[in-house]
Amino acid sequence: MRALIFLAALLCGLPSFAANRCDLSEPTRYADVGEVRLAYQSIGSERDPTLLLVMGLGGQLIHWPDEVVERLCQQGFRVVRFDNRDVGLSTWRRPAPSINLPYEVLRYRLGLSLGAPYHLRDMAGDALGLMDRLGVDNFHVLGASMGGMIAQHLADLAPQRVLSLTLVMTSSSAQGLPAPSDALVALLARREAVSREAALQQQADLLAALGSPTVHDDRALLLHQAEQAYDRAFNPEGVQRQLLAILAESSRVELLNRLKVPTLVVHGTADPLLPVMHGVHVAAHIKGAELKLIPGLAHRFQDAFKEPLLAAVLPHLAAHRGDLGLAHL
Fold this sequence. Notes:
With 329 residues, this protein is α/β, with parallel strands linked by helices. The protein has helices at residues 2-21, 66-74, 101-109, 120-133, 146-157, 182-189, 196-209, 219-232, 236-247, 253-258, 277-284, 306-320; strands at 29-33, 36-43, 50-54, 78-82, 139-144, 162-168, 263-268, 290-294.
């Protein structure tokens, strides 16, 4: 009887316990990984399975919505989010090489080789090095957009260490897949703002263009989001270099074909940057991968789609966490 009472008390106390352990106010810390210093935040107990979040082009760790990070942590994961090199509070490449981005984009469209200061596989090495510095042997990976591309390399670099792979709104970079409009590419590459106000307006324009046509964006909210990112760190040249790393990448089909890690691919049917066939193509080339399409989802973590995204992702993570869900008790 005492055991039953204790178990009931324990179960009833789990929600508050999870809330206490998932402290989003954890400070930003730094780890030296090879030639770069990465800014990261670790949320949750170190005894729990680690879930590494890898952000997309120009995104900072703050672009993972806090409520999503908290929900992931409450499922019994130690959630690690970080700034990729060249954005946020991580190392910016110096001195910054001169980049003629329109010229490089033209070379990409003509199928010519591009010269990039670094590659996505280097960025995957950064992420793997972060796990080494944190003393994490095995971990789960969730990557979004460019972060999903980096995650593909990460699973290939360390197939024995990646327990599960979740790829959201990403691509295989194979030739022949639908391309975004010229107007959207121009917004993505536009970094010539002469003032803080101009930069905020540009970023708000880009966020609106990446949003779902089924959702009305509040311009004031978009500007607030742009302001938070700008005031934390603003490095337009770094975003251009990340974009070059994406454009310089050849098809990852052969890489995907050799992956054996449990994989979930999540994509939106209204993605304007990487149309839905990009996600379908990724899933088709990873053995055993599960594909979940979310109607109306575009290329942003908009509030209207946070619950559908979590509903897609959480069962996959729970199925492959590997500790029967008991590590956080």
